Amino acid sequence: MNLEFVPSEALHLEILVEVSKSTFRSAFEKQNNPEDFKTYLDQAFSKKRLCEEMANPNMHFYFVYLNGELAAYFKLNLNDAQTDIKREDSMELERIYVLDKFQGKQLGKHILNWVKSKASEYKKEFIWLGVWEKNEHAIAFYERNGFGKFGTHPYYIGNDKQTDWLMRLDID
């Protein structure tokens, strides 16, 4: 498996917007109210919003290429860019999405291994993330890879208040 992890830069904004919307739509559109979902998609993945996030030195987007083809993307937040826990010894994995065509190829595991090595490089004690409580497939994936639930937080899709599990993985 030939995987390449490429930091996303401003010149990749159009691609980031498209892949963000398409992967989120594929993962969650059917389980949400269409109006709330459209509102969320238009706000969370707008060019303006993603451009602002890319400009933050503590937010890092990465594209994952499999054999030269874009297969996934993820986002890491450090220090004050983290959404809930803003500790210097932690790192948030805010987004990890694999394009439909590449589902079932174990990319998530490879991404998590890469993220763990990055966390070690940054001298972080743990990685944490939020995952929708109804996303049983993702929760099982994170649990299989050593994450454990330590809390919850509200997450809004438009006006719909949902609950995310907060999950943590300690770095050896």
UniProtKB/TrEMBL annotation:
Keyword DNA damage part of the UniProt annotation: no
SUPFAM superfamilies according to UniProt: Acyl-CoA N-acyltransferases (Nat)
Transmembrane annotation, as ranges: none
Acyltransferase in keyword set: yes
Pfam families: Acetyltransf_1
One of the record's GO molecular function terms: acyltransferase activity, transferring groups other than amino-acyl groups
Domain of life: Bacteria
Keyword terms: Acyltransferase, Transferase
InterPro entries: Acyl_CoA_acyltransferase (IPR016181), GNAT_dom (IPR000182), YpeA/RimI_acetyltransf (IPR050680)
Protein name per UniProt: GNAT family N-acetyltransferase
Organism whose genome encodes this protein: Maribacter cobaltidurans
Lineage: Bacteria, Pseudomonadati, Bacteroidota, Flavobacteriia, Flavobacteriales
